[in-house]
Amino acid sequence: MAFRSISPTKSIKKPAVLYHYPCPDGALAALAAHLYFSASSTAALFFPNTVYSPLRVEELPLDEIGDVYLLDFVGPPGFLLELSPKVERVILLDHHKTALEMLRDEASVGGNVIKVIDMQRSGATIAYNYFKEKLLGGNVNDVVDGREFTLRTFERVRHLFEYIEDGDLWRWHLDDSKAFSSGFKDLNIEYNVRLNPSLFQQLLSMDLESLISQGRVSLLNKQKLINEVLGQSYEIALGGGAFGHCLAVNADSILELRSELGHQLANRSHKMKMRGIGAIVYRVPELENDQLLKISLRSINCEDTTSISQVVFIFSFACDVFACPLAMSYKKFCDPLQEFGGGGHRNASSFMLSSAEFERWKVFAID
């Protein structure tokens, strides 16, 4: 379905912001863009963008768009190549390893593409720094008082961005970081600004101390739920054994806790002499396909999950859809198939897989 703004202006091109959804890191990146454009009263267009069903170029109101910002998600392979010739500029702010690899493969991207990829920061803080520096650079054609007010707002919410990054990169360096993350999740915010027009105001009005206080309480309850699910873990052969073995759990009942669950599962898997990877298995209701599973991998130490997520997904999809023999190289299917979802960070990535294929991965104990 193509997007259209409520009151299209033909004469003035608007900036479009495509941000990773549903993800707090992507939502905070969008907030940074919102602050910047609000300082100049610029009516930017915001589009939530999911990995499992990403926006296509033809779905965007290109006749209304000037610059396009891709925040925390570069889009599927080929998206940038198709989009860049049709808009004035594309500004990519991302931190995912798969984004870096994708751009390396798309060497022919035009000169109107600005890329900031930094795997040491999260998408939120990359956007925070980018838009704040842009504001300081005097690129906003607005009165000084308006710019100063926005700069003060940037500074006021700086800790919010830092906490989001700390959890997104799984560092937990900040005081009460896990309590903050728990309290933030408890708010159950809708990150789609088109469904929740008050999203940015909700984020700006957050009280960190209250979130941390609430989070301390909810952490204990969540750990009880995690312990129950961990007790139902089972062994799988990743990629049918091509990538070793690890533990997996079905997590439809506690989907919002999948990251913490995955890391605890990875630790348990490592202690059981398997790979330090935890596979969180669940269905995505929005896809309306019970036969398709999403597998979120979480890892510890130096375990790189992205190579598994990309290769396993492409190969299994090719075999299921194209009925290709196992001996056939998966590489011929890479370009058309990666758009269906496979990739992420070294320690956190995901892919889609048919339930029939996943059943073949399960390792059944022999009495």
Automatic annotation (TrEMBL):
Classification via InterPro entries: DHH_sf
Xref: SUPFAM superfamilies: DHH phosphoesterases
UniProt name for this protein: DHHA1 domain-containing protein
Species, as recorded: Ilex paraguariensis (yerba mate)
Domain of life: Eukaryota
